[in-house]
Structures are given as C-alpha cells and as structure tokens.
Amino acid sequence: MTQPPSAAAREAAQELADNCEHVETFDELAARIATGKRLNVKLGLDPTTPDLHIGHAVVLRKLQQFVDAGHNVTLLIGDFTTRIGDPTGRNTMRPPLTDEAIEANMQTYAKQAGKVLDLDRVTLRYNSEWLGKLSFAELIKLLAQTTVARMLDRKDFAQRYADGTPISMHEFLYPVAQAYDSVALEADVELGGSDQLFNLLMGRPYQLHAGQLAQICMTVPLLEGLDGKHKMSKSTGNHIALTDSANDQFGKVMRIPDEALARYARLAAGWSQAEADRIAEGLAAGTLSPMDEKKRIAEAVATLYHGADGARAARQHFERTIQRGELPAEIPERRFEGVRTLVDMLVAASFAESKRAAQRLIAEGAVKIDGSVVTDPKAIWDTSEPAVLQVGSRKFVRVLPEKG
Ligand code: ATP
Ligand code: MG
Predict the structure, then answer these.
(1) 239 lines ligand 1 (CB under 6 A)
(2) How many separate domains does the chain show?
(3) 50, 109 Cβ separation under 8 angstroms
C-alpha cells in the first residue's frame, strides 16, 4: 500500500468514521478500504445481562453501517470471555455468572441485536469456539506477549491497585482473550464503546505478532443513562432496553434531564451532530422548548424500535396520561381470585414487590382507584365492579370482579 488512498476511499472511510470518538488510525482505515477488499469487522458483546439497551444500539448502528457498506461483519458473542468478566470501568471484580445464566442471556442477544442489525448479512460467532480450545502452553505464549506495566496503564486497574482493591490474576486475561479473538477472526476493524479502547488496542500487537495487519480500532461515544450522567448500563438500572414497550421507552426519555437532550438526539435518536448542536443552542437561547424537544426525541427513539405508528401512539399515551392526568386508551384487564385488600391487590398486580412496599406506595399517595387517591393502608378491595388500579402515572390495570 504505497499509493495514497484515493479521494473516494478517503470519503468512504470518513463516512464510517463519522460520529466516532476515536479511530486508530484513520489513515489505515482509508488505506485498507482503498484495497477494495471486504473488511473483516468485529464487535464483541458479552452476554452478562438478559437485556441489550439503547446504549448498545449506538455501536450496533455503527456496525450496521459497515454491513451497508458491504463489509464482512461478525457479531461475536463472548460466551467464553463472560466467564472472566470484563473488568473495564469496574472498581471491583465482577461476580462470575453460571453457565445457565450465560446460556439464557445468549439466547436473547441475537434476537435483540436484530432490532438494529440486519442479521441476514451478519455472521454470528461465539468465542468459546477458539478460546475453549487453547492449551495452557498456548496461553502462556499469549501472556508472554504483554506486560504487567501495560496492564497497569489502564486507569481502572491502576486505580484498584493504588487503592489496594484486589485484582485477580484472571482479570488480566480478559484483554488478552479479546486480543486473541481479533487474531482468530483476522479482524481488520474492531468496534466498541469508548470504554473499550484499551481492550481494542490490545488486539493490534497480538495480530502483528501473528503475522497479520493490526486492526483498526474505532470507538463510539457512550450514551449516558436516564440520570444523564453515568454510562447507560444494565447494572446501574439507568437503561432503556431495546425490548421495552414503546410507552416505556417514550416515558423514560421524558425523564432525562434537559442537559442530556442534545446527547440523546445524537446517540439515542441517531440524529446528526448538526441537529444535536441546533437543539443545544436553541435550548440555551430559550428559543426551543425542552418539553417539545424531549417529546420529539422520545418519539424518534420509540420509532427506531416500534415503528412510527407505535411511537405516535406512545406519544399520545404520554400526553393523555402524564400530561393531562387522564387514563390511557388501553388498559390491560386482569382478574384476581381471593384478593381482599388493596395491599394484596398491589402485590398481585405486580405493582409492589411486597406488602411493605405496597403500604409505602399508599402512604406516598401514589395509588389511585378509578382516579381517586387512596391513602388508607388498610383499605379493602371491593370486588363487585371493575375498577382501574393505578400506581404513579404509568402503571394501570383494570381489575375485573371475581367470577361467580
Ligand atoms: P457492562 O456494563 O456489564 O460492562 P456493557 O453494557 O458495557 O455491560 P458490553 O457487552 O460490555 O455491555 O458492551 C458491548 C459493547 O457495547 C461495548 O463495545 C460497549 O462499549 C458498548 N456499550 C455498552 N454500553 C454503552 C453505552 N451506554 N453507550 C455506548 N456504547 C455502549
Ligand atoms: Mg462492558
């Protein structure tokens, strides 16, 4: 590759690099595109939780861009690395997952990723395929290729080491295993969120050592969670799941702080940087209404996973129930047998996890029957007529009278 890449190759590379936080390196990407070869592109997902969320969608959408450009895209399910647990951003070791939990999470991953990715044009692989076969002797050779100092370059490891928080030896294996994945797949490009940069970069020396070209590492910005501050992550519970209903997705976006709107416009709705800037400026100048912009973004997010009609219905639901304090058009109907108190009904309807939690909700004034707040924690449940039970502004059930 002595020729500088053509303008067309640079333009194609620029489109792929758009909205990335870091590209190592852009020139290599342009040069590799210029060869005209389909690039091997890899994204690793660890089945640590049952849900993918709209933060994962940021990097999944970037991966889909490579699919659309005709490259050879692999979604790598880290069934083996999950046993180690990615130490990235952690201040303690991860609790290990059982094989059953890993298996169960894996089942749902491909399906959920399919909400963003065209799975017909993506290859699914599992890294147990090669990592499970490595012998101890081979592992030693891999470990010899890196150093403890290199590991302690990582902020999270360095911090834990400085704090005296234990780092188990096996945690050092995670980046090595991920690097070896790149060797096994002969990756030209690896994608990840920006928290993954260290792990991604590890692949480069390992590939060079294996006689391959070093992969190009591309990271996307991390979407903040509902608090607008911390990385959206299942473990913090500040996430919007890809499988959440349109109403839930809409409602959750409406809860983010105004300061997070421009980020959500770009990373959650997938709008351009220019549009995100326009929103940020409009909000700062007071020429745009935060409520209107939030609804627009919430609708765009719900549209990605539920289509335009589903998203519009979610917006109407929100405007009717939350904003005007009315009931939603469709309320699920359920019948319970033998429930005699409001507390028991809240538990039976799964609106409270325990009787104690139910009593707390009642005391807080969060519980309504047919639109009227009930504050008596000993209230009985009258079963003769259908009644709408409501908790907060988003949970509704129409309870039908008992049969017979
Ligand atoms: P955990 O918090 O348990 O590490 P995770 O949400 O980071 O889970 P991973 O499977 O480790 O999930 O991440 C898969 C890919 O998705 C990684 O490249 C990661 O950087 C990216 N990713 C995860 N969360 C976000 C987010 N909030 N915004 C953008 N990318 C994300
Ligand atoms: Mg992670």
Answers:
(1) no
(2) 3
(3) no
- Is 2 a member of any domain? no
Confirm or reject: Cβ of 82 under 6 Å from ligand 1.
no
Please tell me whether residues 80 and 143 are part of one structural domain.
yes
In a structure prediction context, what are the per-residue pLDDT tens digits for the chain, which is 404 residues long? Answer: 456 888 999 999 999 999 999 999 999 999 999 999 999 999 999 888 778 999 999 999 999 999 999 999 999 999 998 877 777 777 777 777 777 888 878 878 888 999 999 999 999 999 999 999 999 999 999 999 999 999 998 888 999 999 999 888 888 999 999 999 999 999 999 999 999 999 999 999 999 999 999 999 999 999 999 989 899 987 777 899 999 999 999 999 998 999 999 999 999 999 999 999 999 999 999 999 999 999 999 999 999 999 999 999 999 988 887 777 666 767 888 999 889 999 999 999 999 999 999 999 999 989 988 777 888 888 888 767 778 899 987 899 989 888 76
Range of the domain at 283: 246-323
Which CATH number does the domain housing residue 187 bear? 3.40.50.620
Domain boundary among 295, 323, 351: 323
**CATH code where residue 341 lies:** 3.10.290.10
- E strands, 134-196, are 189-193
Residue 348 resides in a domain = yes
Assess whether the C-beta atom of 97 lies below 6 angstroms from ligand 1.
no
Using the mean position of ligand 2's atoms as its centre, give its distance from the Cα of residue 141 in Å: 26
The residues near 6 (Cβ < 8 Å, ≥ 6 apart) are 34
Q: Are residues 113 and 181 in the same domain?
A: yes
